[in-house]
Design a protein that fits this description.
Blueprint: H1 3-17, H2 22-30, H3 38-47, H4 53-67, H5 83-93, H6 97-106, E1 116-119, H7 128-133, H8 136-146, H9 153-167, E2 182-186, H10 193-207, E3 211-216, H11 220-241, H12 249-253, E4 282-284, H13 316-319, E5 324-329, H14 333-343, E6 355-360, H15 385-396, E7 400-406, H16 410-413, E8 428-431, E9 438-439, H17 462-466, E10 467-470, H18 478-500, E11 509-514, H19 519-534, H20 544-559, H21 571-585, E12 592-595, E13 599-600, E14 603-604, E15 614-619, E16 632-637, H22 644-649, E17 655-656, E18 665-669, H23 670-693, E19 731-736, E20 740-741, H24 752-770, E21 773-778, E22 781-791, H25 792-799, H26 811-819, E23 827-833, E24 842-844, E25 847-850, E26 853-855, E27 857-858, E28 861-862, H27 875-879, E29 885-895, E30 903-904, E31 910-916, E32 929-933
Parallel strand pairs: 2-7, 2-8, 3-5, 3-6, 4-5, 6-7, 10-18, 11-15, 11-16, 12-15, 16-18, 23-29, 24-30, 26-29
Antiparallel strand pairs: 1-8, 9-17, 13-14, 19-32, 20-31, 21-22, 22-23, 24-25, 27-28, 29-31
């Protein structure tokens, strides 16, 4: 027994007890107080790297305590993730002051975003007691995540909470009455959706679900990847081996992974056969290389045996002694037809089998596309093939729970909610936050960044750090491609340098060349990339000056950002690692590989079983939706689409890049880069809308259910539609009572008359604010502002004069402000954030001096959004308990490239604003929106334009 083992054991005990005196527990385990001194503990933690087992376990336990719900007895009613909560935890751990200070430094309070939940009412059944008493698969799954290198322990705590939100909304598998829930879980692209549904499956199996069907994309590549991951992290070695003796070579040769998977030792070990350890044995009806096939004479493999034949299968006496069947199937009509046929043959009554259907990439193939209007009784029989088979499964299995997963939910929320057999998420919609370390839109786009263009650098700009703009002219792109390949070589060398110092291991290192969808074009593109690679001179010193310049001007400065990591201080220090990098990439003689089927130049594209994939990958759809390109560091992306969901799914550069996020680069054209920024804003708009509807109403009930809420989908780019679905939008929102209002549908910059009218409407407010300059504290730094106050009646008068690109876009918000009484909204505190430089000394029609803010223009439309950091200037006023004073941020805005010289005309300015309604303004009936229906015979859909 040593110090590490003693403290690991103490932390293990606290999984069920909550925080207890740490050293006392470690002393009990070590049976020797001298072994577990806190001074020695501090020495170990100070010297340990973040992947040290004890430090990771301690981080996980503290994150769990920080995030524990307030109803746990030991929390003393402190709110989660607060300083007061951490003080309670440290007091109960009874650690020395020096230890507490070190823990605060090494393991700061976990600031975990909660999932956004829009749900119907449900009967709670998944209690803490059930969760703790039946946790066989979840316990082993979470332990396997703890052992994963580079995974932030806070992510495991967040995953535990997020999966609870899903499982608790499924039906109780032991309930007498059958109930079928349908839900949708929305993540970000490559943000951990598979980890979430694996956790949901683990908890569902523990709770009693005995048939698990995973619909895994439309390609063999994705299905195989999903099958292996589930086998590795959930199924485990005991269920795979089924008691095969270690010397039975024939049987072992026929078993997946044992002989040919280098990670076999990392597959979950349960320690016992699950049925002997309180779990359910898992039987796979699909394997790594075999999708579902008709069982024919082996139909019993799909059957369920009842221990107590006189009781239904869902009775606990049968359920918790029964085996579980797992199927990972491709969304293919032939495959699903076989499954439906076989289920009809089994002897167990299907209505008794608790079933969980996980639909990965649920907006692809699953949605019915054979109609464009509400279904008649006859028309409901005519569904697209995949949708029809899913409907068959749901009809055959009344205890089946359907949970769709996607990063692009627009097609799902456009489904007819009145079609009972379809997959509309009628019971719940859950939007997952990105996990710690996720690289998303804000890591590649300077969204609302108020730093002048000429002052942006690789240190303060996401675009400057991670994006290189490619020439629009196809004939002039060779130089950009050469730079991308050079970047691929240099970043690979930096990874090997880090690896040599013990900063993790980098098994895979890839570059994606994604220019076209058509297979015929891929080999031609491969030849082009290979030609440039061959003449790059990587195997001699002739390339060094070119590489030196790129390293010093691009790679090295970004490694010095706050999120950067260790890198050679000079190019000469990096040179020894360049040769190894080039050798790895060219090892097989095919440094550039085409990926448009399940084979790549004679090799299987298998990141799992191939020891090292260091390649440039040329491909299209196979490398897009759902499939994870491991080690992706450089993306050369030129493919266009007119659908937002398709484009977002092709953004493979989003994701987790542990240990090398500072090395990630995107090469694309300015037009594509701008389009991606627009659809990222579409996505954030959708989430912001959901976030406002999520809290319960004053009566403690959900304000809006998924079946009632219209699909509030924005479209920032006029030529890129949210999805391919061609739907009718029938509802008209009458009042929108959301606590934050940030309009976006301002007149085009060419509509000078409308802009002038809007500016003139705000002129009295501007004049009043100019007379009241002040300095405010914003997160510890002084900022200059102009401010004033205005009554709600006067503000409504101003807002009522405004012109909009679509006149009805602000009407529901104005209707609510207009009917608000003084005890709800008395007045407004108006703030105009001020800038430095020439843009700070401007007059508008003689009113000034004041600042104008620059924003990008797309198709004549100014992208007028507030700066998130500015919101704390007014939000605390509005959010104060009982406050009747709202907050308003007001921004006179101009195009990014506008010439501003002292005096501006009213028609040259877009008057953009954001409103924060006061706390007292909450709707008394608990509804955040009300709407009227143009035709009550049609479902209530609405498309919100911004």
């Amino acid at each position: 027994m040593n110090l590490i083992d003693a403290y690991l054991g103490a932390l293990k005990m606290m999984e069920s007890t909550g925080p207890r005196p740490l050293r006392q527990a470690a002393t009990f385990i070590a049976a020797n107080p001298a072994l577990v001194g806190e001074a020695e503990l501090r020495i170990h933690l100070t010297a340990a790297n973040p992947n040290d087992e004890l430090r990771r376990t301690l981080s996980l336990r503290l994150a769990t305590f920080d995030h524990q719900a307030e109803d746990a007895a030991w929390t003393e009613d402190t709110a989660p993730n607060t300083r007061k909560r951490r003080e309670v935890v440290l007091r109960m751990l009874d650690v020395e002051e020096a230890t507490a200070a070190l823990l605060g430094e090494l393991i700061p309070i976990a600031n975990l975003d909660e999932p956004i939940v829009i749900a119907d009412e449900w009967t709670p059944w998944y209690t803490e007691s059930i969760k703790r008493s039946r946790d066989f698969y979840w316990q082993h799954y979470s332990e396997s995540l703890q052992a994963a290198p580079h995974l932030d322990p806070k992510a495991i705590t967040a995953l535990d909470k997020a999966t609870d939100r899903v499982v608790e909304r499924l039906a109780d598998p032991t309930a007498t009455e059958a109930y079928q829930a349908k839900g949708l879980v929305v993540g970000y692209v490559q943000s951990g959706k598979t980890a979430n549904f694996t956790g949901v499956m683990a908890k569902a199996i523990d709770a009693g679900y005995r048939l698990i069907i995973v619909l895994s994309g439309t390609t063999d590549l994705l299905r195989t990847q999903t099958q292996r991951r589930l086998d590795m992290e959930l199924v485990g070695q005991e269920n795979l081996l089924r008691g095969i003796k270690p010397d039975d070579d024939v049987a072992l040769d026929a078993t997946d992974y044992v002989r040919n998977d280098p990670d076999w030792d990392r597959f979950v070990r349960h320690g016992v056969q699950p049925s002997d350890g309180g779990g359910s044995d898992l039987y796979r009806l699909t394997k790594k290389s075999f999708d579902y096939k008709s069982l024919e004479l082996g139909i019993s493999a799909l059957d369920f045996i009842k221990r107590e034949r006189h009781l239904p299968f869902f009775h606990p006496a049968n359920l918790f002694t029964g085996d579980t069947r797992l199927l990972v199937v491709k969304k293919n009509s032939t495959v699903l037809k076989k499954l439906v046929a076989d289920l009809n043959k089994i002897t167990t009554r299907l209505e008794e089998v608790p079933t969980l259907i996980i639909d990965d990439e649920s907006d692809q193939a699953s949605v019915n596309t054979s109609r464009a209007k509400p279904l008649s009784t006859e028309a409901k029989k005519k569904r697209s093939a995949i949708n029809r088979h899913i409907a068959d499964l749901l009809r055959m299995l009344p205890r089946a729970q359907y949970v769709g997963y996607t990063a692009t939910p627009f097609a799902n929320v456009f489904i007819d909610p009145n079609d009972a057999e379809d997959i509309f998420p009628k019971n719940f919609l859950i939007a997952l936050p990105p996990g710690p370390g996720y690289m998303g839109a804000r890591d590649f786009h300077d969204l609302n960044l108020d730093i002048p263009l000429d002052e942006r650098t690789k240190e303060n700009s996401a675009e400057k750090a991670h994006v290189h703009i490619v020439n629009e002219d196809e004939n002039e792109q060779d130089a950009d491609l050469q730079r991308a390949l050079d970047t691929f070589v240099l970043t690979g060398a930096v990874k090997l340098y880090r690896q040599s110092l013990g900063y993790g291991t980098f098994r895979h290192h890839t570059m994606l060349y994604h220019v076209a969808m058509q297979k015929d074009a891929h080999r031609e593109q491969r030849a082009k990339v290979k030609e440039i690679w061959d003449r790059s001179g990587y195997r001699s010193a002739s390339c060094f000056e070119r590489l030196r310049s790129l390293y010093e001007e691009d790679i090295l400065p970004v490694t010095r950002r706050p999120d950067g990591a260790v890198a050679p201080s000079t190019f000469d220090e990096l040179v020894p690692f360049i040769g190894d990098t080039v050798n790895r990439i060219g090892k097989t003689g095919h440094p550039v590989l085409v990926v448009n089927s399940d084979k790549i130049e004679g090799e299987e594209l298998d990141f799992a079983t191939t020891p090292h994939v260091w390649r440039v990958l040329v491909g299209g759809n196979k490398l897009a939706r759902g499939f994870t390109v491991e080690g992706l560091t450089v993306s050369f992306y030129l493919r266009r689409s007119r659908q937002a969901d398709t484009m977002m799914q092709m953004g493979r550069w989003f994701g987790y890049r542990a240990g090398y996020r500072d090395l990630v680069r995107l090469y694309t054209t300015q037009a594509l880069y701008d389009e991606f920024e627009d659809i990222c804003q579409d996505e954030e708009f959708f989430r912001d809308e959901l976030r406002q509807y999520a809290p319960f109403g004053v009566d403690g009930r959900p304000q809006i259910t998924p079946s009632q809420i219209p699909p509030l989908v924005a479209q920032h780019h006029p030529k890129i539609k949210p999805t391919a679905a061609n739907k009718m939008y029938n509802a008209r929102v009458e009042q929108r009572r959301t606590p934050m209002k940030e309009p976006g549908n301002y007149p085009l910059i060419s509509e000078k008359t409308s802009l002038k009218r809007n500016t003139n409407a705000f002129s009295p407010l501007l004049s009043s604010a100019v007379a009241h300059p002040e300095v405010c504290d914003l997160d510890g730094r002084p900022v200059n502002v102009l401010s004033t106050q205005i009554t709600n009646e006067d503000l409504v008068s101003i807002l009522g004069q405004l012109h909009w690109a679509k006149e009805d876009s602000f009407r529901p918000d104005l209707n609510y402000l207009r009917q608000a009484t003084p005890d709800m909204i008395a007045d407004w505190h108006v703030v105009l954030p001020q800038l430095k430089g020439q843009d700070a000394q401007v007059s508008i029609e003689g009113v000034g001096p004041l600042s104008v803010h620059r924003r990008r223009v797309i198709n004549g439309k100014l992208q007028a959004k507030s700066q998130p950091a500015d919101r704390s200037l007014v939000q605390p006023i509005a959010n104060h308990p009982g406050s009747t004073r709202g907050g308003m941020l007001l921004y006179p805005m101009v195009p990014k490239d506008a010439a501003v010289q002292g005096e501006l005309s009213a028609g040259d300015v877009v008057m953009a604003f954001t409103l924060f309604l006061p706390q007292a303004s909450g709707a008394t009936d608990g509804k955040l929106i009300t709407w009227t229906t143009k035709d009550s015979s049609l479902p209530g859909y609405a498309l919100v334009s911004v």
